[in-house]
TrEMBL record:
Protein name as it appears in the record: SDR family NAD(P)-dependent oxidoreductase
EC assignment: 1.-.-.-
Top EC class, one word: oxidoreductase
Organism of this sequence: Bacillus seohaeanensis
InterPro entries per UniProt: NAD(P)-bd_dom_sf (IPR036291), SDR_fam (IPR002347)
Gene3D superfamilies: NAD(P)-binding Rossmann-like Domain
Pfam families: adh_short
Amino acid sequence: MNTAVITGGGSGLGKELAVLLSKKGYHVHLLGRTEQNLKNTALEIKSNGGEATFHSLDLLSYETIQKVAKEVSDRFKIELLVNNAGVGYFGSFTESTDQEMEEMFSTNVFGPIRLTKELLPSLRKHKKSAVLNIISTAGLRGKKHESLYVASKFAFRGWGESLQKEFEGTPPRFINAFMGGMNTPFWDKSDHVGNPEKLRSPSEIAEIIINQYETENEIVIESKK
Ligand SMILES: NC(=O)c1ccc[n+]([C@@H]2O[C@H](COP(=O)([O-])OP(=O)(O)OC[C@H]3O[C@@H](n4cnc5c(N)ncnc54)[C@H](OP(=O)(O)O)[C@@H]3O)[C@@H](O)[C@H]2O)c1
């Protein structure tokens, strides 16, 4: 059975990707901080006949990243890593805080880069391995009142695009996915988006990604007009 590792697999897009990947026959390893959410996703997958394991991981802690990466790669040959977890703080640049900037860059950029580096030796053993980076259309263009989030997503995109070139022809393959707004818990503590219910569902976005990631290196899913 092939193995997939998914950060932020307990909610939103990560959860939907995990469910679909398990249906494709992957044993999915769900990573995140809120154990109850990970557990619920794992239970859902298992009740559908799939295989799932969860691990507590805080992307802000390099030590935890190393520990979880070792735990998974010692026992499994990883075919797919989905760098999905992310946080966003929105509002005017003048009112933004240094702590928000630190947290966004640590979670959206440094965390996934560190995790990928730790899992690379395992990923490189599999001829068809891939790293799927969940970015955002915020990684394609600047947006008002999103400057620091956009900056983190541009950085993540730049890293992914560079590795697409550096690993061309050798595993893993790097895929960058850019999507518009989704109705997920991402907006629970923010009023940046007026009515999140108008946004696309994470299951719709997950389905598009799963249909494309095996053949495309770049997936762009714009918001509905
Ligand atoms: N929703 C949108 O409109 C939208 C649009 C484009 C792109 N995106 C991107 O899509 C990705 C998924 O977001 P979502 O919309 O599905 O929102 P979400 O449900 O809030 O998912 C974010 C996930 O990241 C995890 N996470 C956050 N901080 C973490 C940390 N320090 N360590 C480990 N895991 C952490 C969260 O789990 P815990 O809190 O339990 O750790 C959560 O499961 C993010 O990268 C986001 O930037 C979202």
